[in-house]
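User: Run a structure prediction on this.
Assistant: Running it now.
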Amino acid sequence: MILPFVRELVADLEHSEAFERARRHLAGGMGRRRVSGLTAAARALYLPCFVRAAQPLSGADVPVLVLVSDNKAAETLHAAVLAACELTGALDPEEVLRLPAHDVLPFENLSPHGEIQEQRAATLWKLATRSAGRAHAEPATRLVIAPVEAACMRLFPREYYAALALRLRTGEEHLPEMLVEHLQQVGYTRVDVVEMTGQVSIRGGILDVYGPEMERPVRIEFLGDEIESMRRFDPETQRSSSAVDEVLLLPLTETPATEALLGAINARLTRTSPAGSETAAGVADGETSAETPSPSSHTGQATIFPGWEFYAAVAGARSSLLELLGPRTRVLVEEPAMVQNQGERWWNKVEQRHDRSGVGSLVRPPDLYLSPWELQDAIRGYSGFELDQLGAVDVLDGDRS
C-alpha cells in the first residue's frame, strides 16, 4: 500500500519545469543532454520517473539503460531503485534488471563466480525474450543497470540467449534425457537426490529439477515422452505438494558447454601461427607459460579449462548490450567521468593480462570486448542523459555537443 503523502511527493517530483524539459527530451529521443544536481537518493527516485517519461504514447516499450562505473555502483543503485519502486509504485520492481560484470578478468586462468554467471544468464535471457514482447504475461524490461565492463562485452544474438531457458507445460512431449542434457549444458548438476538450486536428477519416468528463482523444486512425471504431471516438492522430505501447469527453468550460465561452442574455442586456441613457430598458447614450442590455459576436462572432443567462458565470443559473438536492447533504448550514464576513468583502468588491466598470458594474436581483447572508446562512440547514437551530481539543483544543461 502506498500512502497518500508519498503519492503527492512523487507527483511533485514530476511537476517541476526541469523535469518537464527532461520528459520531453526522453519522449522525443532528441540526442544527449546533461542533467546535474541529483544526489544518490534523488537519482533513485527520479529514475523510475525517467523510465515512465521515455515511454511513447503508442504503448511500445522503450527500455532505459543506466551505465555505472562498476559492480558495486550497480548493486547500490539497483537496491535504491527497487526501494524507490516499492515506495512510490512508479515502476514494477520486476521490470528492473541488473547485468553484473564478471568478477575476474580474461587471460587469468580463472572462471567467473557461479553466482555472477547465474545472474548474468538469467538477465540476458530476460532481455532476449522480454524485448521481443510480453510473452507468457511476463513483465517488460524497462530499466537495466549495468557496469561499463558488462556493456563492453561482446554478446551473441537474441535467439542464442532466448534458447538458454526451458519452459515446460503439462501435456507437452519431451525426451527426458534430452532435457537433462540441455540442463547440464546450461550449468545444472546431475545428482541422485535434488536438494539445492541448480540440481537435476532422473529416475525412470520422473525428473526432479530445482531451477533459479524457484521457491521449491519441481517433480516432473512422464508417461512415455509426455509430461503427465508436475508438482512442487519439499527438498528436505522429498514429499510432493501443490501441482503446477507450467515451470520456467532459467539457465545457470550464459555459455552452455555444447560441443559446437567448445569446439570453436579450442579450434581458435590450438591453431598454429602462420610462421609455424608458435603453438596454441602463443609461446615457442617446448616452452610453457604460467598464464597459458591448461586443459582440465573434456566434453566429447572439446576441452574445458579454467576461464574458458571468456573465450566464447570467438564462436561468433558480434552483438552488444546496446544492440540487444534495441535502437530505441534511452542510455543514461551515471557520473560519466567516473565511468570513463573506470573503463580506461579496466581496459588497461585486460591488455596487461593478455600480454602476460602468451595467447598472442590468437585471441585479442577486441575479440572479446568493445573498447571503452568504442562504447562511448556507440552511446552517442542513443538518446539519453549524462547524470552528474555536481551542478545546480534541478538544472537541465544544454546539449554537450
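Residues 336-357 form the longest helix (22 residues).
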